[in-house]
Amino acid sequence: MTLPEKQQRLLDELAPLADSQARLAWLVDRARSQPLLPAQLRTDAHRIEGCLSKLWFVPEFRDGRCWFQAESDSLFVKATAGLLCEFYSGETPGAILAQEPEFLRRLGFSHHLTPHRRSTLDRVWQKIRDFAAHQVPATAS
């Protein structure tokens, strides 16, 4: 499934929810059921600095695709960072670099975030984009 198809599936899945507050509640409920990032990965080396909460981000590249995991001591931060990680996991670097996470705006998530949480989400997107860009072979540039 392509990223535009993933985006449309997500938009369709959340369309029946009345408003962005209901969508945020769905997102947080979903994060509650996600497994925790293993303790050995919750290290300073994986921390995203500048966040009020602790936020760990673990990228991996295997078989030509990028994979991402996130964990936070804030359920809300875990939910939003986790959505980005899940959305982009399993994709090629080129596909990631070609698709901005504009679905967050379309779902109304960004509108209800405090400026600090929006900044945190921007940092996660930057980490995803930078990791993907680093995986692009020099000959493809």
Q: Major β-sheet, in short? A: 2 strands, antiparallel
Overall structural class, as computed from helix and strand content, comes to: mainly alpha
Uncertain segments are none
Q: Write the CATH architecture name of the domain at 43-136.
A: Alpha-Beta Complex
CATH topology of the domain at 43-136: Sufe protein. Chain: A
CATH class of the domain at 43-136: Alpha Beta
Can you tell me about this structure?
There is one protein chain. This protein has 141 residues and is mainly alpha-helical. It has a domain at 43-136: Sufe protein. Chain: A (Alpha-Beta Complex), CATH 3.90.1010.10. It is 50% helix and 11% strand. It has six helices and two strands; from the N terminus they run H-H-E-E-H-H-H-H. It has helices spanning 3-14, 20-32, 75-88, 93-98, 103-107, 115-135, and strands spanning 55-62, 65-72. The protein has a two-stranded antiparallel ribbon with strand order 1-2. Strand 1 and strand 2 form a beta hairpin. Helix 2 (20-32) crosses helix 3 (75-88) and helix 3 (75-88) packs parallel to helix 6. The protein is globular and about 40 Å long.
